[in-house]
Each structure stands twice: as C-alpha cells, then as structure tokens.
Amino acid sequence: MPQQPVGFVDAVLAVVAEIPPGQVATYGDVAAVLGSRGARAVGQVMARYGSDVPWWRVVRAGGRPPAGHAEAARPRYEAEGVPMRATADDDGYRIDLAACRWRP
DNA sequence: TCGCTGACATCCA
DNA sequence: CTGGATGCCAGCG
C-alpha cells in the first residue's frame, strides 16, 4: 500500500473506483470512508475529477442520481443491472439502494 | 486570511 | 410524500 499521504481528491477517486458494478454508494458513505462528513466536498471532487471514475455509481441519499446528470447516468445503471424505479421526479427515476447499496 | 460556492445529508413542518 | 432550512467539508479567488 503505497501511499497514504494522498489528497482528498485521490482518496475519493479511489473509493469510487472500488465500487463494484451493479452496486452504488451515497456521497455520505464515500465521505464516511474517508473519515469526513463532507458529502458536498465529495461532490466537488466528482464535478472536477470524476471524469476518471464511475461517478454514476455515486448517488445521493434516497437513491437519486447526481443533480443534472440523471440522464447521463440512467443508461449506466441499465447496463450494470442496477434496479431502479420510475418516478415522477425531474430525474425520472430512482435507484433501489435497498438492493444495491455498496458497503465498504 | 476571508468568504463564496457546490454532482450533499439530515431534520422539521 | 414534498418543501424549506441548517450543518459539514474541501477547493478556489
């Protein structure tokens, strides 16, 4: 285990990269793994560096996809086999965390 | 150094 | 269930 002196950004990317296909984790869970409660900070990292990690596997509490990216994440969940339920929300769907929530 | 922003979480009405 | 308000954390100007 090479390093521990890694920036918060690298830590977030590492956790997201460890999420297995077909499963998802919430921003709060990722922050908890890092030992922080900055769920928002995690979202910041995704917005800037999430391009290199399966950001679609990181969702908000309640099983909602990232705000403004629901359309881009929906096909990913279908490809991964993540169970989701259609809703009347702006996102159009919701993820069943009870069946695919990833636990570190 | 200070203040604002943001792909959030949780609580209450 | 929905909506509004508050709190937390890290990055950037």
Automatic annotation (TrEMBL):
> Which InterPro entries does this entry report, sorted A to Z?
ATL_DNA_repair (IPR052520), MethylDNA_cys_MeTrfase_DNA-bd (IPR014048), MethylDNA_cys_MeTrfase_DNAb (IPR036217), WH-like_DNA-bd_sf (IPR036388)
Report domain Methylated-DNA-[protein]-cysteine S-methyltransferase DNA binding positions: 8-81
One Pfam family cited in the UniProt record for this chain: DNA_binding_1
UniProt KW DNA damage keyword:
yes
Q: Which UniProt keywords apply?
A: DNA damage
> Which named protein is this?
Alkylated DNA nucleotide flippase Atl1
Name its species. Answer: Agromyces ramosus
